[in-house]
Write a structure and sequence with these properties.
The chain is an alpha+beta fold and 142 residues long. 30% of the residues lie in helices and 36% in strands.
Length: 142
Amino acid sequence: MMIFARSTALLAMLLALASGFVQAEERPEVAPKVVAFSGEQGVKVWTLRIGARSENRALVQVEGVDHDWDMRIQRMDVEKNAEDTRYSTQVDGKKFVVLLVRNGWGELYLPGEAKPLMVGYDNGLSEQGNAQAFLTDYLQAR
């Protein structure tokens, strides 16, 4: 009976270890640092590149707004050009630019809102961000 209990315990440990390896392999690559913006009415916007740089994707979370998107982490497309960076997603089947950033300053557009909220890069807030924790929150919410 003791051999069976030890074998069962060993098997359980091996399965748990293997499960951990599988989960680690499923985590996509992310940038080492979260980039955060803060602005009008206490709004905060957190961004994090997800996947290879060439994929031009990011996780974006808006915080501190009276909106359905408050605290929701969304995967968005990123378009960079010489003038600005645009984070967009699909809303009602159409491309919707959520965040437009130029020289560290930006405009946050939320569906159903009449005007954008102005935001600016916030180094202190960015330093508080943890890229791996942000990714974990996104993966757990899916």
